[in-house]
Specification:
alpha+beta, 23 strands, about 25% strand
Length: about 425
């Protein structure tokens, strides 16, 4: 079943555990390719993107054993550098295997990566940056091949901040000859997690958490056991859903220190937040207040992954506001679907102007990407009547079981 049916208009009450981070687990799994031996990754979320990444690792010769959220990866027999097109094509994150495979094997052949359609997200900056480290790239219509001896450390002055490029260069640099400097480097918590994993394994990285990373290449890394932090975007999803539908929920294990901009915005819109040692208590007894304006940006600014969820919260408020998207140019794909539910939203270039009518009604809507799909579920919870969100497979890329999680919070929701 590839749809979700929601019977809306009911407040949320209860608690749910926040899963391990999708955006942190994927680069950490890619990084295991750099380490001969067996690594154990704890709190790895059971989502389709992780499934595809593990399948890619197996196709490269890795031995993968999964026990719930614990994953063991042995890379001793890593030998293949030609990845299956079906897994590469559905997951944008497969591009981060490029730097790791070049560092470990000296070559890779792959299709162009896929994933959500939320903007161009070209890979030319990845390839251009790796060329600066001595990589030879041969591009084809449907993919490319890349080859190198031992990679050479260098200074990268990126034209803009990119999470994906920063991750790829980190993976390429830790075993490179000499010193690599990445500036401006992305500062997202997931970048910090990747660096912490690699340092635990023996890498030498300075400037973690800053906009400038300095990496001194080492000869080898060593197997480690490592825990993935909780998912800040999943936590933000359930927080925003409570804002939309009303009620009181406890987000067990929510990573408070990674959510400052989201928590600030939620408070501006009237959410009651109690930050506890093991999570966040969210209390929303009134409709969200208008927030005026919301602008996305690179961390620590408001995350683009939360933009569509707060758009729903703004749509059910009684006051107008607008959102400016500064990260991806095609992040407003949810707007036509929200209009089907009664939202009044106008898009002009990279801004969406939300009227704030105070309510939504049920409708059949279609998810076209991961976070927009989750936002449509939140809209269904807030709406009067029944909603059906199709294309659930997009949502399953980033949420372990969004239906069960909302049921824990008292929602009337089921697969359809």
């Amino acid at each position: 079943m590839d749809a979700i049916r929601i019977y809306g208009g009911k407040c949320l009450e209860g608690q749910t555990r926040i899963q391990g981070s999708k955006n942190a687990s994927l680069p950490v799994l890619a990084a295991t390719l750099l380490i001969k031996g067996t690594c154990e990754i704890e709190n790895c979320p059971e989502i389709s993107d992780v499934y595809h990444m593990l399948r890619l690792l197996e196709s490269l010769g890795c031995k993968v054993v999964r026990e719930g959220t614990l994953v063991r990866i042995n890379t001793e027999q890593l030998s293949e550098c030609d990845m299956p097109a079906d897994s590469v094509g559905v997951m944008r994150s497969s591009i981060m295997l490029l730097g790791a495979l070049l560092a470990r094997l000296g070559g890779v052949k792959m299709e162009y990566p896929g994933g959500c359609v939320i903007g161009a997200r070209p890979i030319d900056l990845h390839l251009r940056s790796l060329r600066n480290m001595g990589v030879r790239v041969e591009e084809r219509e449907d993919g490319f091949s890349a080859y190198a001896g031992r990679l050479k450390g260098t200074r990268h002055r990126l034209p803009f901040i990119s999470v994906g490029v920063t991750e790829n260069l980190i993976l390429a640099a830790v075993l490179a000859e000499g010193t690599t400097v990445i500036e401006p480097a992305a500062r997202e918590p997931e970048i910090q997690t990747l660096c912490e994993f690699l340092v635990r394994a023996g890498a030498k990285i300075e400037g973690i958490g800053s906009g400038c990373l300095t990496i001194q290449g080492v000869d080898r890394l060593f197997p480690v056991r490592f825990g993935v932090p909780a998912d800040r975007i999943a936590a933000g999803t359930y927080l925003a859903a409570c804002m939309c539908a009303g009620g009181q929920v406890f987000l067990q294990g929510a990573p408070v220190s990674h959510m400052e901009s989201v928590l600030l915005q939620a408070r501006r819109m009237g959410a009651g937040l109690t930050l506890e040692e093991n999570g966040i208590l969210v209390t929303c007894r009134k409709k969200p207040a208008g927030c005026g304006q919301l602008v996305t940006g690179c961390y620590p600014a408001f995350p683009t992954d939360m933009q569509s969820l707060f758009m729903v919260a703004m749509a059910v408020s009684d006051q107008p506001g607008w959102i400016e998207e500064r990260v991806f140019e095609n992040r407003f794909r949810i707007v036509p679907e929200l209009r089907k539910m009664g939202a009044e939203i106008t898009v002009r270039e990279n801004r969406a102007y939300i009227c704030g009518r105070g309510g939504l009604h049920g409708a059949i809507v279609q998810a076209e990407e991961l976070r927009g799909g989750a936002a449509l579920v939140a809209a269904g919870l807030a709406a009067q009547g029944t909603s059906i969100v199709t294309n659930r497979h997009y949502i399953d890329r980033g949420y372990e079981d969004i239906v069960s999680s909302f049921r824990e919070l008292g929602a009337e929701i089921e697969p359809a």
